[in-house]
Molecular chaperone DnaK (HSP70) (Nocardiopsis algeriensis), 541 residues
Amino acid sequence: MTTYGIDLGTTYSCVASVDDTGRAAIAKNAVGNDTTPSVVYFESARNVVVGEEAKNTALLYPDLVVSLVKRQMGASADYEFHGRRHTPESVSALILRELARAAGEHDRSTVEDVVITVPAYFGIHEKEATRRAGQIAGLNVLDIVPEPVAAALHYQSLDSSAGVRHLLVYDLGGGTFDTTVIRVEDNDVRVVCTDGDHRLGGADWDEKLADLMLERFTDLHPSPDPSADEQFLQDVAAAAEQVKRSLSIREHARHNLRFGGEAVRVELTRGDFEALTSDLLERTLTITERTVAMARERGVDSFDDVLLVGGMTRMPAVSRSLRERFGFDPHLHEPDLAVAKGAALFAMVRQVKNVMDVSGPTDRARRAEEVGAALGITRAQVEQLAAKTVTSVSPRAFGVKATDSTDPLFATDPGRARQYISHLIEANTPLPVTVEDGFATVWPDQEQVEIDVWEQAGSVASEELEHNVRIGDALLTGLPKGPAGTPFRIEFRLGETGLLRVRGWDPGSGKEIRFDVQIGGMSHDDVREAREAVAMIRTSG
């Protein structure tokens, strides 16, 4: 009955489970490391390598290696290797398969039931793509949990303080960034607010550093053109990551670059690196300012702890900037492992709840005994896990496309009038939530209305179409003929799992349409076919 938490990271991934002492423990990978590079090398049509070896192979065969695939989750992107097409979901599934295989070997068990983490700021498309990746990998995905929530659960498991505590989680990983304020008390973990940028992370620091190192080499040896050689660019990228890590613990770093029979020693100071990437760090601080302001609006004026999560938070500039800008006293909270460990705890909570919720009141005690025996924990611990609640918020706003009745064109030609997004659910609304609002037809005798559902795409909610992304639609038909401006209503119901249910209806006639927002990209048949295809591929680490 062991359940696993998987931190499916942009650059590194990690797996954990809860051991027989009730503590979350890391399942080491095939080479004995806690974390695995989220890199896939397509050696052949039937064999892929995942992890450190794949990352090293990128230096030799860059065209056969995929990295940073997490940034493509939810997008319409394709890869082709050895005559076979792969989606971001299927590539991520290969990573998950290898993580599960290695964890199973380490724990001498079979990894089936899992919780997978995602950045707090992931939208519906990205979350659903992550869930599909788990399904394609042949896993039973119990839930998708935001990374800072997982980190807070791990923090709570180690902290014996009583009463209410407010945490600010600053999570800067390899490819994503978010800040989240979380309220913890006994069995309750509640997200207050969150903000972030899922395309900002350590890879951007690496890219700036690689560009600088390439520039210094090219200044001295411009011919033959080093930037035209893919293998040399991979060498520079690997060197940039190594130098970045060195500058997190030392004031100076150097690296020898070689190309075309020439060699250049590139020397950098921590100050050089911080100046080079100051704009990236400033972006994280701006997001943090927005999060702190939102928390203040919701009655949270101070934080009992500021947790630094994600490998990039080891950079001294992060802690220093948070102290200088906000007066925080942040501390590193197992930056590479906390999310996976918290996900393992959440997986156990979810599994216990699933089992206990199907038990009637008369056999609940007996069921708790059975669950405890299966998990190796006491009945009291089972009851405590079953009582734990985790409440999140909607990281983004959701709305419908509407026509601006104040546009002068509306009176003569409403089809050409300005269109905008009317948000029914605002960002940082606690889940679950149900919201309804009134709208009106724009044409005389209009008998149907297209309900276009959109999700906030930018970092700040905006009613402009270009700052939102369309995620679903349906047609409300059979409306009685009437003048332009005939009212109808739309209801959004957003659940804790991220499922958005939409209802549109005409109060007069009772005509209505109900639909769940179906995320494009892969149908159930596509997922099944991808699962069968991935099952035919051998993974190794």
